[in-house]
């Protein structure tokens, strides 16, 4: 259950414990008495509200699959997160992916109440959390993984494209975009809003995604393309660098990253 970020609910001051003063060397000749043993003397300092450290865990982030109703937030997040416009997926690509394979797309959200002081490009496109709540809380997207499946073993320009007639009455067979029978999931976009980066949210999001796909048995591997400065970040999660990618998307200069998914345990088989 998402928790609110309503500052009115948080205490106006915080109490923090200072290191206690403990007598340096108790007399070893005296028998140890539970009741008379020296206790650390605690001191408390009141920190004014405006000087309190804002712990990122106060965001209480939660993940859930994205749906087409998240489209505007996904587009806003993509545009804010990728500095280079040529590396951003277009709105049309997101419409395609969120319609064709939204079960492969995961968002990380937090709950925000009006005037909480939190700013994010995705607040205007957030949705009310619960209609019964009087505080106007909305569910705000702060990071996403948007993916599709391919028959290839790595991310290619074709997998990053999409057939333009996909939503026509009789779409032509195409090797562009999502391939339902593919055993490789291509992560097209992994992003966290800039002001929320460096707080571990990308880690939480990617780990949640990997965990979900490891158990699902719907694919054999996760792949993506990354610039050299991001290769180390993905290696932290178990992705392997397979060398320079042939993909020319956004100007090229990518590396192929691959994560081999664990096979489905027999007892977890379903369907
Ligand atoms: C990539 C991205 C999603 C990471 O999200 P994030 O929330 O900032 O990531 P986290 O806070 O979980 O991870 C940061 C940690 O990774 C470390 N890190 C960052 N870059 C790293 C690298 N190249 N190699 C190893 N570690 C790296 C940081 O030092 C930090 O470590 P710490 O947790 O020990 O402090 C985010 O930076 C982003 O959205 N960037 C713009 C879009 C983008 O480039 N996406 C990737 C496309 S390939």
What does the model show?
By secondary structure, this protein is of the alpha+beta class. It has two domains: 7-51, no CATH class; 56-268, 3-Layer(aba) Sandwich (Aminopeptidase). It has helices at 71-81, 91-100, 157-160, 201-216, 228-235; strands at residues 14-21, 41-47, 62-65, 106-112, 127-128, 138-150, 184-192, 221-226, 240-244, 255-260. Helix 1 (71-81) packs across helix 2.
Topology record:
Blueprint: E1 14-21, E2 41-47, E3 62-65, H1 71-81, H2 91-100, E4 106-112, E5 127-128, E6 138-150, H3 157-160, E7 184-192, H4 201-216, E8 221-226, H5 228-235, E9 240-244, E10 255-260
Coenzyme A (COA) binds at residues 81-82, 190-192, 197-203, 226, 229-230, 232-233, 236.
Pfam families: Acetyltransf_10 (PF13673)
Organism: Hyphodiscus hymeniophilus
Protein name: Arylalkylamine N-acetyltransferase
Keywords:
GNAT_dom; aralkylamine N-acetyltransferase activity; 10 strands; eight-stranded mixed β-sheet; SNAT-like; 271 residues; alpha+beta; two-stranded antiparallel sheet; Arylalkylamine N-acetyltransferase; Acyl_CoA_acyltransferase; binds coenzyme A; Aminopeptidase
Helix content: 10-25%
| Cα-based radius of gyration, to the nearest Å | 24 Å
Question: Structural class of the secondary elements?
Answer: alpha+beta
Enumerate the distinct ligands.
Answer: coenzyme A
CATH superfamily of the largest domain: Gcn5-related N-acetyltransferase (GNAT)
CATH architecture of the largest domain: 3-Layer(aba) Sandwich
* CATH topology term of the largest domain: Aminopeptidase
Number of strands: 10
Number of discrete helical segments: 5
Overall number of domains: 2
- Mean pLDDT, rounded to whole units? 84
CATH class of the largest domain: Alpha Beta
Helix/strand order: EEEHHEEEHEHEHEE
Strand content: 15-25%
Largest sheet: 8 strands, mixed
Describe the global form: globular
Report how far the terminal alpha carbons are from each other: 28 Å
Low-confidence parts: 1-35
């Amino acid at each position: 259950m998402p928790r609110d970020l309503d500052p009115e609910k948080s205490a106006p001051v915080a109490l923090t414990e200072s290191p206690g003063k403990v007598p340096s060397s108790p007399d070893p000749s005296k028998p140890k008495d539970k009741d008379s043993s020296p206790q650390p003397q605690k001191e408390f300092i009141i920190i004014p509200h405006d000087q309190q450290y804002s712990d990122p865990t106060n965001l209480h982030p939660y993940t859930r699959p994205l749906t087409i109703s998240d489209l505007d937030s996904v587009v806003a997040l993509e545009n804010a997160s990728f500095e280079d416009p040529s590396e951003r997926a277009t709105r049309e690509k997101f419409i395609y992916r969120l319609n064709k394979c939204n079960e492969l797309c995961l968002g990380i959200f937090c709950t925000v109440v009006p005037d909480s002081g939190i700013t994010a490009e995705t607040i205007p496109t957030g949705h009310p959390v619960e209609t019964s709540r009087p505080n106007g809380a909305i569910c705000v997207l702060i990071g996403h993984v948007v993916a599709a499946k391919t028959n290839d073993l790595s991310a290619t320009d074709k997998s990053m494209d999409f057939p333009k007639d996909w939503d026509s009455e009789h779409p032509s067979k195409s090797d562009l975009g999502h391939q339902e029978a593919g055993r490789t999931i291509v992560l097209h976009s992994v992003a966290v809003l800039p002001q929320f980066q460096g707080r571990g949210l990308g880690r939480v999001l990617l780990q949640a995604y990997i965990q979900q796909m490891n158990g699902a048995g719907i694919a054999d591997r996760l792949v993506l393309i990354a610039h050299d400065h991001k290769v180390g970040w993905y290696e932290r999660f178990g992705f392997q660098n397979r060398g320079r990618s042939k993909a020319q998307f956004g100007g090229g200069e990518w590396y192929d990253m691959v994560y081999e998914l664990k096979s489905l345990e027999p007892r977890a088989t379903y369907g």
